[in-house]
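Exercise 3.2. Students should predict the tertiary structure of the chain below and write it as structure tokens, then compare their answer with the key that follows.

Predict this chain's 3D structure.
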Amino acid sequence: QVQFVESGGGLVQPGGSLRLSCVVSGIIFRTYAMGWYRQAPGKQRELVATISSGGNTNYIEPVKGRFTISRDNAKNTVFLQMNSLKPEDTAVYYCAAFGRANYWGQGTQVTVSS
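Answer key:
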């Protein structure tokens, strides 16, 4: 059974930072690519950032230079460091694992507001 424990979301003012964490169990973590989706109210879910099993990263254009995805294979954990946050970053953020099958977590709310 694959389980995700996501944490780090919350309310932050524009320009602030948050660090999301996602601990995954039930898969051979080091063999999976990992990513973070987000879904804002009334919008489609979008894949924000990915990191391959080898550590290669990709980002959507709106977050390039502000967000950093990383992973710690020893702790089965993937992170999303989010800096210079904007109101348009407000969404539920979901951790995802891509491999022999794809899995995702329950999500954590990120709200950017003054």
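Discussion points: The mean pLDDT is 97. The longest strand covers residues 18-25.
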